[in-house]
Design a protein that fits this description.
By secondary structure, the protein is an all-beta fold. It has no helices and 22 strands. Strand 8 and strand 9 form a beta hairpin. The structure holds calcium ion (CA) (3 copies).
Length: 319
């Protein structure tokens, strides 16, 4: 057998048509997860609350919609415990304080995180499973303008207000009330991500924190990883930074220095499923803070693209 080595050019995907799918195709995360507030934390959700922010650029003049797939709990994708009895409250916020209030940028729903104007709100029990539910229309200017985040910012919270089941769902920011049609140049981010992993062995999920110029070290926290394989960070200069990993229902944290060349770049946090014994229905929570303990945003469209260490040469084996 002869080995042929070939250099594979690594191209950055530039497909912005999926820019407002949350999770995004680049993340390879099947669904977001929020449990009812009587849920068992060892099933993977540490606080029964998930907050996402959507950015609408100034160039967008027409109304936008925030769509939720499977907002109810009771469908085939949801995680049942006993009978389905979970209720989830989805709330859309805009206006002053929506993102600029410090508490809104934390990892836990504490203090005045519920800041801004409530633009729309609905509680879902077992209805609207297997379909998209649409909030809006919203005038872009009803979001809070933030230069730092690149446009008008809307906040969407999902809170489990009753029950003990896992609600799985996903989002799309759209220019249409009836279809998923991306807002050009839009983005979405969160400060704590609670999500479902794929079940299949060897699958890799990604999340993409942006490291700004003030960051000299990062601390990552992961909850309820269930020892499901490898967890590491790839940067523009480093091939792997191994992370301390959690087991069942616990937090594990580790701190990592940031190199000069890594400032103002995106990190690729990779979650590699266990190759021999992948956990089934594995939900995990994850966040990153800087050296001041401030949580850092994970963008669904990685700022500046997915990091590729310059020296990466892939060796492929051909028969
Ligand atoms: Ca239940
Ligand atoms: Ca659901
Ligand atoms: Ca888990």
């Amino acid at each position: 057998m002869k080995l042929i080595y070939s250099i594979v050019l690594l191209l950055i995907s530039g497909d912005l048509s999926f820019a407002q799918a949350v999770p995004s195709p680049e993340e390879n995360i099947p669904y977001l997860v929020t449990f009812g507030n009587a849920g068992d934390k060892s099933w993977g959700d540490d606080d029964f609350c998930q907050v996402f922010f959507f950015v609408v650029p100034k160039t967008q003049k027409t109304s936008i919609y925030l769509r939720v797939y499977d907002p109810g709990t009771g469908g085939t994708i949801d995680e049942k415990k006993g009978a389905f009895n979970t209720k989830t409250k989805f709330t859309v916020f805009g206006g002053k304080g929506c993102i600029t209030n410090k508490d809104a940028r934390g990892t836990d729903p504490k203090g005045n995180w519920y800041s801004g104007n409530i633009l729309s709100q609905k509680i879902f029990g077992n209805e609207n499973t297997g379909e998209w539910y649409t909030f809006g229309p919203f005038n872009p200017t009803s979001g809070e303008y933030s230069k730092k985040y690149g446009g008008y910012v809307f906040k969407v919270s999902a809170r489990g207000i009753a029950g003990d089941d896992g609600n799985l769902y996903k989002y799309f920011m759209s220019t249409s009330s009836t279809a998923n049609s991306a807002v050009e140049g839009g983005n979405a981010f969160t400060f704590e991500y609670t999500f479902r992993l794929n079940d299949a062995a060897g699958e890799v999920s990604h999340i993409y924190p942006y490291i700004d110029s003030n960051v000299i070290s990062v601390k990552q926290g992961n909850f309820d990883w269930d020892n499901d394989g490898e967890m590491k960070i790839i940067t523009n200069t480093r091939l792997t930074i191994p992370l301390t990993k959690s087991g069942d229902g616990d937090w594990k944290k580790s701190e990592h220095k940031v190199l000069k060349a890594e400032k103002e770049s995106t990190f690729d946090v990779q979650f590699h499923k266990n190759k021999s014994a992948p956990a089934k229905n594995n939900n995990v929570s994850f966040y990153i803070t800087n050296q001041y303990g401030e949580s850092m945003p994970f963008y669904t469209v990685p700022i500046g693209g997915v990091p590729k260490p310059k020296s990466v040469i892939r060796i492929t084996k051909k028969k």
